[in-house]
Write a structure and sequence with these properties.
single chain, 134 residues, mainly alpha, 8 helices, globular
Length: 134
């Protein structure tokens, strides 16, 4: 895993290239990058990438990574990414018109624990709906 794996996603490659150029990818761009990146990068490497954003110093990057790790955020889906993109200037998704683009679950091979978390969440949702209809 690592940066090479992230580059398999056109969206993450777009974010990595913008960070390499020192661009401000916006609050939601950093959040999406951190939520996806923390599943593929070591903490220090993720912080180093985030600090390439001209609007994100080391303290801000460490706080964001800590938040993502402590809350065990799973990567956002395409719909959430597009919602976030609408709230900022920087385009998180470089090709929003493509319905297959910017879906980390389609573009990357997610670690097993992410898939298990999602399956557990769906089971809990199903149980809650069943309990509510009884």
């Amino acid at each position: 895993m690592g940066v090479n794996e992230l580059r398999r996603s056109p969206m993450m490659s777009h974010l990595l290239e913008a960070l390499d150029r020192g661009e401000d990818i916006g609050h939601y761009g950093r959040l999406a990058f951190a939520m996806i990146g923390h599943r593929f990068l070591e903490r220090d490497e993720l912080v180093a990438w985030l600090t390439k954003d001209r609007d994100c110093d080391e303290q801000k990057a460490k706080a964001l990574v800590q938040q993502v790790e402590s809350r065990e955020y799973n990567p956002p889906g395409r719909e959430r990414i597009l919602e976030w993109q609408a709230q900022q200037e920087f385009p998180i998704c470089p090709t929003p018109e493509d319905p297959n683009a910017c879906n980390p679950y389609r573009e990357l091979e997610m670690p097993e624990e992410v898939l298990e978390d999602i399956e557990e969440y769906r089971e809990q949702q199903f149980e809650a709906v069943e309990a509510a209809t009884r």
